[in-house]
């Protein structure tokens, strides 16, 4: 049964990135939650990534003395390119 397949850590990492960028299907979300329940390494990595993201956000706000302006954000086209690459990478795992 596909739902009971335990993801590899690599696939879980890809799904975690996809979740933040474009969201997950119900099945992907369930698979990621199951993996996080059983894998202490990915749980720790996830916490560390969140800390790094928050630190980067705070640093950017200090550097630019305001929330990140649109001039420093990805364009919609760049976001679509990343989404397409994430989807393609997710299919190849
Ligand atoms: Zn893992």
Structure notes:
- It is built from four helices and no strands.
- By secondary structure, it is mainly α.
- The protein has one domain.
- Helix 1 packs across helix 2.
- The radius of gyration is 16 Å and the shape is flat.
- It binds zinc ion.
- Zinc ion binds next to helix 1 and helix 3.
Q: Hetero groups bound? A: zinc ion
Q: Write down how many β-strands occur, each being a DSSP E stretch of 2 or more residues.
A: 0
Q: Show unreliable segments.
A: none
Major sheet details: none
Estimated share of beta-strand residues: under 5%
Counted by DSSP, the helix tally is 4
Radius of gyration: 16 Å
Report mean pLDDT, rounded to a whole number: 83
Give the oligomeric state of the chains in this entry, treating copies of one chain as homo and distinct chains as hetero: single chain
Distance between the terminal alpha carbons, to the nearest Å? Answer: 18 Å
**Overall tally of domains:** 1
Secondary-structure element order, N to C: HHHH
Structural class computed from helices and strand pairing: mainly alpha
- Portion of residues within helices: over 70%
Give the overall shape. flat
What is the topology?
Elements: H1 9-21, H2 26-38, H3 40-64, H4 76-92
Bound molecules: zinc ion (ZN).
Key terms:
93 residues; mainly alpha; 73% helix; 0% strand; binds zinc ion
Concise account of the structure shown:
With 93 residues, the protein is an all-alpha fold. It has four helices and no strands.
